[in-house]
Amino acid sequence: MTVAPAVLQFTYAFAKDKGVVVLPGRDTLTLGVRAGADPLSLVEARRALGTGFELEALDRDSYERTLADVFTSGALAGDSVDAAVDARGGLESLIDELPKTADLLDGQDDAPVIRLINGLIHEALKRRASDIHIDPFEDSLSIRYRIDGDLVEVLKPPRKLAAPIVSRIKVMSRLDIAEKRLPQDGRISLSAGGKSVDVRVATLPTRYGERVVLRLLDTKNALLDLRELGMDAETYERFTEVLSQPNGVILVTGPVGSGKTSTLYSALSRLNTGRDNIMTLEDPVEYGLPGISQTQMDHKVGLNFAATLRSILRQDPNVVMVGEIRDSETAEVTFEFASTGRLALSTLHTNSASGAITRLRDMGVEDYLLSSTLRAIMAQRLVRRLCPSCKEARRATHTECESLGLPADTDLTVYDPQGCLSCGQTGFTGRLGVYELLIADRDIRNMLSDGATEDAIDQAAFSQHDRLLDNARRYVLLGDTSVAEVLRACRKGGQ
What we know:
By secondary structure, this protein is of the alpha/beta class. The chain is 35% helix and 25% strand. The protein is built from 19 helices and 18 strands. Strands 12-11-13-14-10-15-18 form a 7-stranded mixed sheet, sandwiched between helices. It has a 6-stranded antiparallel sheet with strand order 6-5-4-9-8-7. A hairpin with a 2-residue loop joins strand 8 (195-206) and strand 9. 38% of the residues are buried.
């Protein structure tokens, strides 16, 4: 008589401690046994399973890999998790199911904490969250979603649940559950609603326990066509024209979370026609790009942007994307690389397009190299889109009109967020891209070679084109976002 092994499995704590695990995909019930496991463990396994089984010996490394595979192979089935959350009355009800033990992974049944974490991830995907923050404090545990750039608290479970939740996430991401003194990074691959989702996990020791951030990476949402990024027609045409150039440096600037990586990925997707060798250097690789060679940096072994870029010439690339220009060495090597007749794309943290020129000069890039190699700088922001179901119209004040660069007496209808069930009471749903594009034409290149100031270059570049605030104003005029949202996003750093 055969037993379907899919319905039988030990708890993670038992399998980890005793060195025995039920192997999936076998016709008969088969136990993998770790080298050096106590023979008495097999007696306990026989008593727990209540039936006979076959044995398969595994060395320690093979056993650890098998253990990780077995306990992370469960897909996040969107429909079943959704139904479970709805049937039980929300995420709070999943907490009520958790047994009152010190560590759920040491209990007889770790299914409740698994359901809780699956519910958290699935609900985050439904609400379009980009991150899940799990923060332990002295008397509580805070679980927050980052939705459209802002953190929203969704759950405040008891403080004692921090350890089992963090331990389970570590198991899923194949991290060391015993190491609580050092930061750790890992990944979880899940399927939800028929689509693949990568979850990047980062842990950090804090005063009251380990803090965990889960970054949700949905490839389908990341690989957008350039037309879907929200560029106005003029900016789109100018940017695509720059991308068609065979050499030089194209930079995308903005603060953290402004969509720089999405813009670069969209640009690479447009360039990926199969005729060019396109390579990326990233830290880390966030999304897989079909047909493009992607290299992840590893600073522990000296694999950094500058060192890798120096050796990449032997790979005969036509286009290279450098994840970020962080230091003088990377800046210098990127521009020297582009001067050999290749196209280089990268990001930089500055508040404006012209501000990138000052930053590059501070990093030691010579004016002659900027003049001959720089092709364009795109600065961008993201503003939240007003929920169409609950936004409320009113007349703009004189101060608001002036802040938008309009005459004070302009008769302008603007909209404010209110909050409803459709938007989760936030008043916003989704985000919109705001751009300013500085193209290094002949006049700008002459100014660069002459050492012109940032202000002079800014005036020359944007005398006929939109700056960030001008570009964002169109969304206010269309009723797509609020005045406060535009001023918050586009006037940082004195904009």
